[in-house]
Amino acid sequence: MPVIAVVNRKGGSGKSTLATHLAAYCAHKGLPVLLGDADFQQSSHAWLRQRERQRLAPAPKIAGWSVDPRNILRAPPGVTHVVLDTPGGLKGYDLLRVVMLADAVIVPVCHSLFDRESAAECLAELAAHPRVARGRCKVAAVGMRIDGRTKAEASLRAWAETLKLPFLGALRETQTYVKCLEHGLTLFDMPAGRVDADLAQWRPILDWVAPLLEPAQVEAKPVRRPTRPVLPPGSPPSGHLRNAATAESRWPAEQALVQAAAAAKQRSLPPVVPRAEPARAEPVRVQPVRVEPVRVEPVCAQPVADEPSRLSQLEPAGVDDLDSRFAGLTTRIGRWLEVLSLKRAR
User: Fold this and answer.
1) 289, part of any domain
2) Which residues pair with 169 in a beta bridge?
3) Confidence category of residue 247, pLDDT binned at 50, 70, 90
4) Sheet containing 3-6: which strands, arranged edge to edge?
5) Read out DSSP for 122-145?
């Protein structure tokens, strides 16, 4: 959002006249403009109230905005351009606030020693601000109430050159400004035939602020198109995706190279001997053997009546027979008992 501030420490230098004309010019260009009045006298607001009473159909509307120089805020929504009318004696921290918000500062200067000295001090303080030093906030001077019959304009130009300050031009002292401001109008609201001389003096000023009011549009970057043509659906692939089926579409020289390479490769390879397939063995069919179940008859053990019983054949052994069978054992036991008795006797 472009913001143009009109700054001068000395009162009566033509700040309100310059600010109201810049706001009217923006309104005639069809730009939603806001006229911010930071002066305690509220001169610009008085001019806006007088302008609303005129109810001129061709005169576009200019929004008003009361601004506290010690608390300058952002413009309300719906506004794209702001012209700020500042109070006299603006310096120090209040001046820095204005510079932080503004994109351009115009300093109106009258042809007098007091005006030039006050403007020089204000310009020195502005030049020390980082935004002005880096070129983000432009500063220029405009001569106000200059008598064309004198050398006042040449004197102001020489003064601006010593300060290396752009001098946009000089506005002459005429009653046209006084009459227009009394009715809430500007030179841009008057018929062009009646104020041709004065509008000609405004031309250098308007040319200087035109890049701020209408910033250059950023050119759209060209759309990067694909390097290869987009193939329709169903078409054969191209480039490294094409296969031997699309070899007919190649150039004749490329086809000849491909055919020669294929022939050379075919000659260098040994002949391919077809491999004999092994005989296929037929599967052996095994006939199932049916096993008949064996029937086993149960056998019952029956005692034989003719054969005598074995128990009946056993006879009891006699005493003599037992002594003969266990004689050795008896002898050993007797000897052991004898030895045991001798040990106890000792």
Assistant:
1) no
2) 142
3) very low
4) 63-66, 33-37, 81-85, 3-6, 104-110, 138-146, 167-172
5) HHHHHHTSHHHHTTSSEEEEEEEE
Burial 285-322 (b: 16+ CB within 10 A, else e): eeeeeeeeeeeeeeeeeeeeeeeeeeeeeeeeeeeeee
Please indicate, yes or no, if residue 161 is contained in any of the structural domains: yes
The answer to whether the CB of 184 falls within 8 A of the CB of 51 is: yes
- Establish if 291 belongs to a structural domain: no
Which residue range(s) make up the domain with 69? 3-213
Specify if 235 maps to a domain: no
pTM for the model stands at: 0.60
Report pLDDT digits (tens) over 114-133: 889 989 998 999 888 889 98
Q: What is the CATH number of the domain that holds 194?
A: 3.40.50.300
Largest CA-CA distance found in the chain, in angstroms, rounded: 188
Number of domains in the chain: 1
**pLDDT score, position 218:** 44
